[in-house]
């Protein structure tokens, strides 16, 4: 697999478990080491800020994509390699995915879930075939994974979950799968 840029979708908050931020920083370092350009939501808070800061700290490139309405809410990051301000959330997701070769999902809330499920839907509809990785830090996504396997068992999915999503429990495991 030849990944030059990867979209990372994650929370604009850090969450309550310190492992979320620790794994995010470790992942950023590994992306920089692999010379993979980070494409993310453009914010400087929460896990979004942590992933950008880590990639930049370790000499990597970071492309932020932020909707105009969120420039104040998410407090756009000022130190990025590149920043695009787009009109809306849909434009953000589309641009992020067009600019990347794969995607990683870190812990997050509604926005992160929206991004994950839209990418999965696009994948299922053959709009793209990019790999989607979930970093399941501290078991954050265990319930979601259980639900997806239930949907598979009940014949609502067209293929097994593992054919659409690569689930990893730590950054090193993910690092080994994207090399």
Secondary structure layout:
Blueprint (H helix, E strand, L loop, with lengths): L4 E5 L8 H16 L3 E4 L5 H12 L4 E6 L2 H4 L8 E5 L2 H10 L3 E4 L4 H15 L6 E5 L6 H12 L7 H4 L1 E3 L2 H8 L1
Helix pairs in contact: 1-2, 1-8
Terminal Cα span: 7 Å
**Would you tell me the overall average pLDDT?**
93
Continuous helix count? 8
Helix percent band: 40-55%
Tell me the number of strands.
7
Structural class: alpha/beta
Largest sheet: 7 strands, parallel
Summarize the structure.
The chain has helices at residues 18-33, 46-57, 70-73, 89-98, 110-124, 142-153, 161-164, 171-178, and strands at residues 5-9, 37-40, 62-67, 82-86, 102-105, 131-135, 166-168.
What does this structure look like?
This protein is an alpha/beta fold and 179 residues long. The chain contains eight helices and seven strands; from the N terminus they run βαβαβαβαβαβααβα. The protein has helices at 18-33, 46-57, 70-73, 89-98, 110-124, 142-153, 161-164, 171-178, and strands at residues 5-9, 37-40, 62-67, 82-86, 102-105, 131-135, 166-168. A seven-stranded parallel beta sheet has the order 4-3-2-1-5-6-7, sandwiched between helices. α1 (18-33) links the parallel β1 and β2 (37-40). α1 (18-33) packs parallel to α2 (46-57) and α1 (18-33) packs parallel to α8 (171-178). It is globular. The N and C termini lie close together (7 Å). 41% of the residues are buried. The model has no long low-confidence stretch (mean pLDDT 93).
């Amino acid at each position: 697999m030849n990944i030059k840029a990867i979209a990372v979708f994650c929370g604009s908050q850090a969450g309550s478990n310190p492992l979320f931020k620790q794994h995010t920083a470790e992942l950023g370092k590994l992306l920089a080491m692999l010379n993979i350009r980070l494409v993310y939501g453009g914010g400087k808070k929460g896990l979004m800020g942590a992933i950008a800061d880590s990639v930049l700290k370790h000499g990597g490139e970071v492309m932020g994509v932020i909707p105009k309405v969120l420039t104040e809410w998410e407090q756009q990051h000022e130190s990025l390699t590149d920043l695009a301000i787009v009109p809306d959330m849909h434009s953000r997701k589309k641009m992020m995915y067009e600019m990347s070769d794969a995607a990683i999902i870190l812990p997050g809330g509604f926005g992160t879930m929206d991004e994950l499920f839209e990418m999965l839907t696009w994948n299922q509809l053959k709009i793209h075939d990019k790999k989607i990785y979930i970093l399941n830090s501290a078991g954050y996504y265990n319930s979601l994974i259980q639900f997806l396997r239930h949907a598979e068992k009940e014949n609502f999915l067209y293929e097994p979950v593992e054919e659409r999503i690569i689930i990893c429990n730590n950054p090193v495991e993910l690092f080994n799968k994207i090399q």
